[in-house]
């Protein structure tokens, strides 16, 4: 459209002057920006404020969104414009005039002279508040996002999980509430299902959630024993086992604090249970060790000689091993007295004591495994390949009887002699029998049996009772041998990690704790006391000390809860019973192992059956 | 100097408060680790968390206090000084509270929001310390409105002189004025983006960054000016365009400095609000899944 803009200005002499401008454009733009057809400055005038367009022959005013003008004194955003209409904008007046020929529109502009040129700034966006940035909008956005991902979505997913509906792992649900990683095994077992452990809102994780999987874990104190105390309920699992932490090695609480909280003051709250005070690991802070020993007692039981093995807790300085074995460590470790068969080298500890895979216990010492390579059970120098059976006194008697019967009844044999033991400096002594072969055989067998049980065979290692019974099967009773497998059954000790102690290795490491070279009797309990341990260990980090906590040696959750009973106020020693039956009695010969086991008893004298660590 | 007073308010008393708070927090932190690693769930962690949460609430109260002109609870300057120092201490306290255990979770979100708020505060402090001097140096004592008034007059005079020149010169100058950009969006304000164009005779708009090309265009016409009056007009026009260039530079720099002086608040304040919500959720959720 073609428009004529007539600007009315007051000249320097006070006379009004007209400045005419011809404008040819699609629309007549009004605003404070420099590229407007009609540039007006002032408060409230936007850079692009309004346009005047020609619709047919009708002039129309259209304001920008959010902007208005005063048309004939009224606020308008859009309007039809007729000749004579006055548009007011920040004091500027635009009057629609009759267009002269050749023009579509004519406008008379009477500018507001009081408007300062400094209002020109409004033509531009010069402040951050005029941009998309807005504190309020951004705050609301932030609040909504935090509420959405921090509360609503997790809550929704939690409800779904409780209803048994699985959600894909990429959905950010209540795992967004996770305070830290789970232990890998727990993570694998539970996935992202928080409700596996957190079963109710605002409720701490209950032990039932733990024992759902950890069924075989025993509590620190059995309920019956706990009832004897005034300690109240045992702590929740999560009191010690704190999940969602890094590093995860802390999942097992290794601090002494909680142990000492109770065991540091056993006079209070422990009720009938009497325990020593423990304040940590040190000479004055921890009581001396108390080994669990096996003690055998004989008692007549029915028709046989019964051995009862009781476990007794003893003071270390008074503790005596009562295995019934005759053995000298000192002798075996002395190269002047004993050398290994085969390579003729001095014996090592490991020749007999073999560490089990657990690194703590040793394989039981057995005649067949450890002793027989040197100590053969030969009985006739003339038949060095014949040996007596071990561990079966009745078989020994039968073997000897059989051997001599065969020897005396052999028609091809010449003069049958029974060789006596060759002793250095003694001439070979021969004994000749001239009676019936069977009588001769029985007489020789009887002599050899007496010799084996009382002078040179079994008697070397075992205690043998000569009952003087007329029946040879009943006459000799070999006292059974048994070692405690573990002197401290509810504690841990890693022999393997102690096999190298500074510069000590091999036997030197063993002998630094176990005084085997001085032990002449198997009754010596070579378990070192706490003094030995504290040479290297303490409960506080210190120079040349390796720190140990309570749980380094003790178990909070007992492997075998019955072991704890030994400490109870009314001692009830665990008893294992071994029956030595009257094996010679013909009517008992048919008694099999299974029947004996059903009675809770075992067969007699399995020498060296058990060996302790 | 407001910033000097802000940091050295009453002998930097809040600096010592804040250092004391940091030392006490560190001392508390190192007593952890016996039965579990340092984290927000030990009693020391709870104490550090409570102190941190109370600090966050108190720091937020500055926004309320500075609007209460009639309040006599300390001076706004004292509050701001304490806000700066204790806010700095908060980053240490919250880090100790977390036990430096972070993950993709709500708790770390709250921590990150807090860090963004504090770091934006540090940036704000830096701009408050250095930008006002730069701004007043740029304006040489005047106000921004004066620069705009000058620009308007230069525009008007340049158009007037250009109208007496050859048509292509008039079009160039008119279009360069019409298509001069100033400020604009956030990026344009902060980085003084200049999208100015002008129409050079042939009718195609060309870039006119820093108004240099329109000046070059008019200047190139000078040697070819035939009549004395035309040469005088062109010379006058060049003077006006160069003055205009200088004023525009100043205005652009003013807008940029002002933008940087204010931008941090557009993050500091809204993220503080989001942080408050995240903080409440952090506390509640901790006890949801105890």
Secondary structure layout plus pairing:
The complex is a heterodimer of chains A (613) and B (290).
Chain A: E1 2-10, E2 16-24, E3 28-31, E4 38-39, E5 50-55, E6 58-63, E7 69-71, E8 74-76, E9 78-81, E10 86-89, E11 92-97, E12 105-110, H1 135-162, H2 184-190, H3 207-211, H4 223-226, H5 237-240, H6 257-263, E13 292-301, E14 304-313, H7 329-333, H8 367-371, H9 393-409, E15 417-419, E16 430-432, H10 437-456, E17 464-466, H11 472-475, E18 476-478, E19 500-501, E20 504-505, H12 506-513, H13 530-534, E21 537-538, E22 546-547, H14 550-553, E23 575-580, H15 593-598
Parallel strand pairs in A: 1-12, 3-4, 21-22
Antiparallel strand pairs in A: 1-2, 3-5, 5-6, 6-9, 7-8, 7-10, 10-11, 11-12, 13-14, 14-23, 15-16, 17-18, 19-20
Helix pairs in contact in A: 9-10
Chain B: H1 2-7, H2 13-30, H3 43-65, H4 76-98, H5 106-139, H6 144-162, H7 167-178, H8 186-191, E1 197-199, E2 205-207, H9 212-221, H10 228-263, H11 265-288
Antiparallel strand pairs in B: 1-2
Helix pairs in contact in B: 2-4, 3-4, 4-5, 5-10, 5-11, 6-7, 6-10, 9-10
List keywords for this structure.
heterodimer, A: about 625 residues, alpha+beta, Tumour Suppressor Smad4, seven-stranded mixed beta sheet, five-stranded mixed beta sheet, 23 strands, about 20% strand, rod-shaped, disordered C terminus, B: about 290 residues, mainly alpha, 2 domains, two-stranded antiparallel sheet, elongated
Describe the structure.
The complex is a heterodimer of chains A (about 625) and B (about 290). Among the domains of chain A are: about 1-130, Sandwich (Tumour Suppressor Smad4); about 375-460, no CATH class. By secondary structure, chain A is an alpha+beta fold. Chain A is about 20% helix and about 20% strand. Chain A has 15 helices and 23 strands. A seven-stranded mixed sheet of chain A has the order 2-1-12-11-10-7-8, with no helix packed on it. Chain B has two domains: about 1-140 and about 265-290, no CATH class; about 145-260, no CATH class. The chains are: A alpha+beta (about 625), B mainly alpha (about 290). Chains A and B meet through helix 1 of A and helix 5, helix 6, helix 10 and helix 11 of B.
């Amino acid at each position: 459209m073609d428009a004529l803009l007539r600007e009315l200005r007051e000249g320097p002499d006070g006379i009004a002057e007209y400045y005419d401008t011809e404008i040819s454009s699609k629309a007549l733009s009004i605003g404070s920006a420099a590229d407007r057809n009609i540039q007006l400055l002032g408060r409230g005038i936007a850079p692009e404020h309004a346009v005047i367009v020609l619709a047919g022959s009708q002039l129309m005013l259209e304001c920008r969104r959010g902007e208005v003008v005063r048309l004939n004194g009224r606020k308008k955003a859009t309007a039809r414009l007729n000749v004579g209409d006055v548009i007011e904008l920040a004091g500027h007046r635009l009057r629609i005039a009759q267009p002269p020929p050749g023009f579509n529109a004519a406008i008379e502009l009477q500018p507001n002279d009081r408007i300062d040129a400094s209002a020109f700034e409004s033509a531009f966006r010069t402040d951050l508040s005029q941009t998309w940035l807005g504190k309020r909008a951004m705050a609301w956005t932030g609040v909504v996002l935090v509420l959405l991902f921090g509360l609503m979505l997790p809550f929704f997913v939690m409800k779904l999980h409780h209803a048994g509906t699985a959600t894909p792992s990429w959905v950010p649900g209540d795992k967004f509430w996770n305070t830290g990683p789970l232990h890998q095994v727990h993570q694998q077992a539970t996935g992202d299902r928080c409700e596996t452990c957190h079963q109710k809102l605002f409720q701490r994780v209950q032990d039932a959630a733990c024992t759902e999987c950890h069924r075989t874990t025993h509590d620190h104190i059995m309920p019956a024993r706990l009832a004897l105390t005034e300690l109240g309920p045992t702590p929740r699992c999560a009191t010690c086992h704190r999940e969602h932490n890094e590093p995860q090695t802390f999942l097992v609480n290794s601090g002494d604090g909680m142990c000492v909280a109770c065991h540091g003051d056993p006079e209070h709250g422990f009720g009938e249970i009497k325990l020593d005070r423990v304040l940590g690991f040190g000479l004055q802070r921890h009581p001396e060790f108390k080994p669990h020993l096996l003690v055998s007692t004989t008692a007549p039981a029915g028709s046989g000689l019964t051995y009862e093995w009781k476990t007794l807790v003893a003071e270390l300085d008074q503790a005596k091993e009562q295995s019934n074995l005759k053995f000298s460590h000192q002798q075996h470790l002395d190269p002047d007295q004993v050398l290994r068969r085969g390579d003729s080298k001095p014996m090592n500890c490991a020749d007999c004591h073999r560490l089990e895979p657990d690194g703590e216990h040793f394989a039981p010492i057995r005649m067949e495994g450890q002793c027989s390579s040197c100590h053969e059970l030969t009985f006739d120098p003339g038949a060095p390949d014949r040996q007596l059976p071990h561990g079966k006194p009745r078989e020994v008697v039968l073997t000897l009887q059989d051997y001599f019967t065969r020897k005396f009844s052999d028609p091809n044999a010449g003069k049958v002699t029974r060789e006596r033991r060759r002793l250095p400096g003694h001439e070979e002594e021969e004994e000749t029998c001239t009676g019936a072969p069977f009588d001769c055989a029985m007489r020789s067998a009887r002599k050899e049996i007496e010799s084996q049980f009382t002078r040179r065979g079994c008697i070397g290692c075992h205690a043998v009772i000569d009952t003087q019974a007329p029946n040879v099967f009943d006459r000799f009773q070999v006292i059974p041998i048994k070692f405690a497998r573990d002197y401290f059954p509810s504690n841990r000790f890693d022999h393997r990690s102690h096999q190298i102690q500074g510069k000590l290795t091999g036997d030197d490491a063993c002998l630094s704790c176990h005084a085997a070279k001085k032990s002449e009797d198997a009754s010596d309990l070579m378990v070192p006391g706490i003094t030995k341990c504290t040479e290297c260990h303490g409960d506080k980090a210190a120079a040349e000390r390796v720190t140990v906590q309570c749980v380094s040696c003790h178990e909070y959750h007992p492997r075998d809860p019955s072991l704890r009973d030994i400490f109870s106020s009314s001692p009830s020693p665990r008893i294992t019973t071994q029956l030595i039956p009257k094996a010679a009695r013909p009517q008992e010969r048919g008694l099999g192992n299974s029947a004996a086991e059903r009675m809770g008893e075992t067969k007699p004298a399995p020498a060296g059956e058990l060996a302790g660590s | 100097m407001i910033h000097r007073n802000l940091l050295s308010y009453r002998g930097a008393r809040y600096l010592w408060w804040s250092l004391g708070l940091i030392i006490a927090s560190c001392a508390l932190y190192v007593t952890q680790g016996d039965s579990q690693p340092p984290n927000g769930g030990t009693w020391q962690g709870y104490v550090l968390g409570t102190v941190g949460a109370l600090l966050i609430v108190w720091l937020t109260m500055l926004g309320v206090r500075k609007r209460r002109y009639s309040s006599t609870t300390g001076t706004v300057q004292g509050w701001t000084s304490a806000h700066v120092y204790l806010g700095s201490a908060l980053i240490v306290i919250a880090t100790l509270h977390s036990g430096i255990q972070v993950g993709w979770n709500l708790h770390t979100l709250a921590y990150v929001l807090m860090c963004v708020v504090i770091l934006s505060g540090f940036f704000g402090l830096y701009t408050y310390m250095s930008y006002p001097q730069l701004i007043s140096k740029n304006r040489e004592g005047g106000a921004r409105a004066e620069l705009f008034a000058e620009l308007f007059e230069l525009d008007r005079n340049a158009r007037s002189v250009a109208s007496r020149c050859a048509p292509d010169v008039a079009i160039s100058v008119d279009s360069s004025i019409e298509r001069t950009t100033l400020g604009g969006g956030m990026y344009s304000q902060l980085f003084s983006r200049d999208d100015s164009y002008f129409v050079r005779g042939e009718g195609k708009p060309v870039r006119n960054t820093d108004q240099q090309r329109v000046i070059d265009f008019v200047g190139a016409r000078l040697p070819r000016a035939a009549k004395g009056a035309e040469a005088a007009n062109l010379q006058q026009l060049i003077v006006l365009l160069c003055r205009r260039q200088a004023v525009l530079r100043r205005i652009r720099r003013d807008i940029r400095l002002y933008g940087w002086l204010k931008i941090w608040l557009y993050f500091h304040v809204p993220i503080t609000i989001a942080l408050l919500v995240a903080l409440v959720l952090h506390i509640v959720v901790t006890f949801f899944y105890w």
